[in-house]
Amino acid sequence: MSETLPLQSLLTLAAQALPEASPLRLMNLSTAAGVGQLRQAAAFMRADLPLASVGWWHLLADSGRLDPVAEGWHVVPSLGTPSDREALIAALAEGLLTAVAVNHHPLDAEEQLLPVDQRQSGVAGHRFVLPALWRELVVGRGWSVNDLWQALSWGPSRLLGRPGERLELGGRRWLLFNPDQEWDPQADLEAPLAANEPLAAERQRGQVLATGLRASLWRGPLP
Questions:
Q1: One-character DSSP codes across 127-167
Q2: Within a 10 A sphere around the Cβ of 63, how many other Cβ atoms?
Q3: What does DSSP assign to residue 195?
Q4: DSSP secondary-structure letter at 115?
Q5: Residue 134 and residue 206: Cα distance in Å, rounded?
Q6: Please, are residues 145 and 138 in contact by the beta-carbon 8 Å criterion?
Q7: Radius of gyration (Cα) for the chain, nearest Å?
Q8: Is-contact 113 96, C-beta < 8 A?
Q9: Which three-class secondary structure state does DSSP give residue 14?
Q10: Can you tell me whether residue 52 is helix, strand or coil?
Q11: Which of the four, 15, 67, 155, 205, has the lowest number of CB atoms within 10 Å?
Q12: Distances in Å between the alpha carbon of 167 and those of 62, 94, 170, 171, 173?
């Protein structure tokens, strides 16, 4: 209800907006009920359908999948059920949800010593987003690379009202990703100091090897 009640009010207001009005932006949908409300509202909109984001961790974890003592429970909005996660993935695939949000919120080791109910909420994990979603959506569910990049890059640009990313000769807006590269987060020399990375204890497959924003660290040929 903490999601559906305010969402219903916002969608009711948005349905009365003029066609030329800027689309409503909704952050961090997390439930199947919220997705259902968004889908129903589409039939009554005079203006553009609201643009909505979903947190990356809500696409990977749910109350039936995450170990009870694992990192990643203390997030806002709360993790939903398996059916919530499936609804979010389906809505993202069909374009009802516009973008994946990282919501990176690192906590230090001292903060992590507090009881769960006294800690700040959130997870860190910039370095895990692309590898984990590649495994879940591309490998596990047959998404195309274009579908994934729509959710991770072009969709977020649209939600923020920014031009979509594109490769340009001499540009720095690129990254080099190897989906088969295996790596150990604990041995990563550039690992952040965040103590609340939910995937840091697991060996990973898939890694960003270089980006144009840090091209000076890349020793291979430029893409």
A1: HHHHHHHIIIIIITT---HHHHHIIIIIHHHHHTT-PPP--
A2: 14
A3: S
A4: -
A5: 8
A6: yes
A7: 19
A8: no
A9: helix
A10: strand
A11: 67
A12: 35, 25, 9, 7, 7
Instruction: Tell me whether the omega of the peptide bond preceding residue 68 falls within 30 degrees of 0, making it cis.
Output: no
DSSP 202-223: S-EEEEEEEEGGGGGG--S---
Q: At what angle do helices 4-15 and 32-41 cross, to 10 degrees?
A: 10
Backbone angles phi, psi at 177, to 5 degrees: -120, 130
Contact between residue 50 and residue 41 where contact means Cβ atoms under 8 Å apart: yes
At residue 49, the pLDDT reads: 81
Contacts of 181-188 with C-beta under 8 Å, sequence gap 24+, read 181/205, 181/206, 181/207, 181/209, 182/207, 183/207, 185/127, 185/128, 188/127
pTM over 0.85: yes
Compute mean pLDDT per 10 residues along the chain, 223 residues long, and list them: 90 76 89 94 74 96 90 92 97 96 92 84 93 98 97 96 90 92 91 91 92 66 49
Question: Rounded to an integer, what distance in angstroms lies between the CA atom of residue 15 and that of residue 74?
Answer: 34
Q: Could you give the C-alpha distances from 222 to 20, 61, 170, 171, in angstroms and in order?
A: 43, 35, 10, 11
